Amino acid sequence: xxxxxxxxxxxxxxxxxxxxxxxxxxxxxxxxxxxxxxxxxxxxxxxxxxxxxxxxxxxxxxxxxxxxxxxxxxxxxxxxxxxxxxxxxxxxxxxxxxxxxxxxxxxxxxxxxxxxxxxxxxxxxxxxxxxxxxxxxxxxxxxxxxxxxxxxxxxxxxxxxxxxxxxxxxxxxxxxxxxxxxxxxxxxxxxxxxxxxxxxxxxxxxxxxxxxxxxxxxxxxxxxxxxxxxxxxxxxxxxxxxxxxxxxxxxxxxxxxxxxxxxxxxxxxxxxxxxxxxxxxxxxxxxxxxxxxxxxxxxxxxxxxxxxxxxxxxxxxxxxxxx
Amino acid sequence: xxxxxxxxxxxxxxxxxxxxxxxxxxxxxxxxxxxxxxxxxxxxxxxxxxxxxxxxxxxxxxxxxxxxxxxxxxxxxxxxxxxxxxxxxxxxxxxxxxxxxxxxxxxxxxxxxxxxxxxxxxxxxxxxxxxxxxxxxxxxxxxxxxxxxxxxxxxxxxxxxxxxxxxxxxxxxxxxxxxxxxxxxxxxxxxxxxxxxxxxxxxxxxxxxxxxxxxxxxxxxxxxxxxxxxxxxxxxxxxxxxx
Amino acid sequence: xxxxxxxxxxxxxxxxxxxxxxxxxxxxxxxxxxxxxxxxxxxxxxxxxxxxxxxxxxxxxxxxxxxxxxxxxxxxxxxxxxxxxxxxxxxxxxxxxxxxxxxxxxxxxxxxxxxxxxxxxxxxxxxxxxxxxxxxxxxxxxxxxxxxxxxxxxxxxxxxxxxxxxxxxxxxxxxxxxxxxxxxxxxxxxxxxxxxxxxxxxxxxxxxxxxxxxxxxxxxxxxxxxxxxxxxxxxxxxxxxxxxxxxxxxxxxxxxxxxxxxxxxxxxxxxxxxxxxxxxxxxxxxxxxxx
Lengths: 323, 243, 291
Ligand SMILES: Nc1ncnc2c1ncn2[C@@H]1O[C@H](COP(=O)(O)OP(=O)(O)OP(=O)(O)O)[C@@H](O)[C@H]1O
Ligand SMILES: [Mg+2]
Known about the structure:
The complex is a heterotrimer.
Chain A: H1 2-26, H2 30-56, H3 63-81, H4 85-109, H5 112-131, E1 142-143, H6 156-180, H7 182-192, H8 194-199, H9 204-223, H10 226-230, E2 232-233, H11 235-239, H12 241-254, H13 261-279, H14 282-299, H15 303-309
Antiparallel strand pairs in A: 1-2
Helix pairs in contact in A: 1-6, 2-6, 2-9, 2-12, 2-13, 3-4, 3-5, 3-9, 4-9, 6-7, 12-13, 12-14, 12-15, 13-14
Chain B: E1 3-13, E2 16-27, E3 31-35, H1 42-49, E4 56-64, E5 67-70, H2 76-81, E6 84-87, H3 99-106, H4 110-113, H5 116-126, H6 128-132, H7 143-155, E7 161-165, H8 173-190, E8 193-198, H9 201-207, E9 210-215, E10 218-223, H10 226-231, H11 233-238
Parallel strand pairs in B: 3-8, 3-9, 6-7, 7-8
Antiparallel strand pairs in B: 1-2, 1-4, 4-5, 9-10
Helix pairs in contact in B: 3-7, 8-9
Chain C: H1 2-32, H2 40-58, H3 62-89, H4 94-120, E1 135-138, E2 141-144, H5 145-167, H6 169-179, H7 181-186, H8 191-216, H9 223-237, H10 243-263, H11 269-283
Antiparallel strand pairs in C: 1-2
The structure holds adenosine-5'-triphosphate and magnesium ion.
Adenosine-5'-triphosphate binds next to helix 1 of chain B.
């Protein structure tokens, strides 16, 4: 197991970090890093969402809440307690993971739309808590001043870029590890039929909680560097549904239940989002994303990955069995 | 003279064929029983007649005033609107509606709506139990009451042809006898043609005019009348346990 | 002191009735048809904006304008169900279908919001009528017609739906289809038709709830997302599919919110319905009034 982890996480991690450094050195435009940051963050969130939503079939609409929980944890620690960035990231993951545990217990009781709505509930309640707590910035939020750049970076955004690159790599690697292990196979069984999985000896309860905790913790981690990226952290934009919507839309566009689906989806959707925002306006942006989601759900239920794999469509019933 | 004809009916689930060339006829005013033990395809025949199974082929038609009306390929609700109803296996009541609401719903087809009250009275008359309990939610009824309600509900649509899939399932012998007696009366009072699938030979034979025996998805014997059925070796072997 | 409480409760009741009107359509679509239409509040807001538009352009009384947009929404819902049936119900297994449908309607919600923002802008819109500012006094309790009229319309709506679903053939058939679709075909009904009607009704209620909405308070495109939690908690609390249950649940939420606003602070109001929702889901997901 250790060997596997080092092969799948540490060595490729170092390689990714090197590539990131190289890009940071070679490319000089600031805008480039902003775009990359947004897309990489989407990849991280999408991969995290995929662990619960794609593998087990529980749709979490509260991405914004878990993400913001991470962002707020990190900014509170960094600002008030001046901890190390790494500690802030770990703490962000822990806090969101604990919230995930809460949601995990809900997933034992309910599923389908009930579960999805309760994730929105949890995220809205978090938003209310932030709004009403002056310590957390209230409605005005936190204004953040980025620290000066430090070598080898010529701008702080390059450092943030590297950070989110590693985080998104981590999120994707974790989801890949899960997918390829026995846990992934059990998840598939849960998605297929929870009862059947239960009776054939899959510990569905523990696994569902595991999936939610890991998924939410990763969202929190993805949120940790966000305050420095956005420089104004306030509850409406950070915890709104928009951010999360892009993330799960990316999963639907890319392909669910497959570790590289979120990457494809986030790159396509992120690119689209950026170009629409630049060329038209941000309201049209929401419209376009909405249409893309609908188009994929209707026409390509398994996303780009499904389209690439061809006409193997396990989720659709054969014509003659339709009622 | 009206009749329902099933000719060379084949049916399959997924790729497994369960009916092989089933042919049977139901004339006006007759009570015909379709006998067969578990899993031989009785319910499947019923489903095919009602258009509830897409994957069947052959001929199913209604002959009415010399005209032939094909049923195969028609939608279930259209078939019901032609005056054919099925009391399905397992009763299939509307569990959270009251007894009366269930009955009223039975008269949904247009030709039955005019006579709701009259039909309701008739149902209450043949099943007084239902009248006592007309405000009860139907999933709290006992098994026998449910069967009565299922039959009554199908009568509410003023059918000419009534298909009953296992009237006796899960019922105590006394109640089976009651239900059978009522079905027998129905036929006389309402000039119904009844096709009844049954495993309980002794009860069903009391009201049957003739019958078919279905084994492994094909008709293996046709009895022209009661005596023929009772005297038949296959019947003796399968249903009466006499070697 | 007592007066304040009394006034708070009365305004809670008035608001609660309106909430019931918002949630009842969801109770039909999700409770009876099993269609997870989370775009419902979006359609409410859209109904509100259309009423606003008719009111501004043609000077129609909003309550009348609302009646005019009902057929539009009904037809839309009717057709939308046909499409839904085609793409989801008849094609995918239930679990998969529900999950995709959830995401689909989320997309629809986004599109509605975006379209409204693009056409009407993101400002708050409201309609004013001659009766809007009238306040009636009953002892120490003041009732503003701006709130009372939507309340009465909601009560009327709930009653009509209750009667429709328990006393008419088609209403009963819709219930029957919800309970056992196969048996419903055996009584000679076409489930697809019944469901289309029901979905159309659900949309009509959304339209009229929107009308009441603009009469009550100013609306703005992104309110749909905020209302999501409210309508869902009311629909679930009310036992999904029961008009009277929804009405009671609406009142409960309305009164609780009103008390929260008065005694805890208006910034917590939105949390009320969500907290209620989490409690219901954790304790009794079938709601209070499932029969
Ligand atoms: N939905 C289905 N899918 C696959 N096979 C089926 C299905 N329904 C029935 N069968 C098979 O078709 C055969 C005939 O079934 P059918 O229900 O017609 O039997 P039956 O005579 O009514 O039995 P019973 O007396 O137990 O009700 C059985 O072997 C059964 O396993
Ligand atoms: Mg059977």
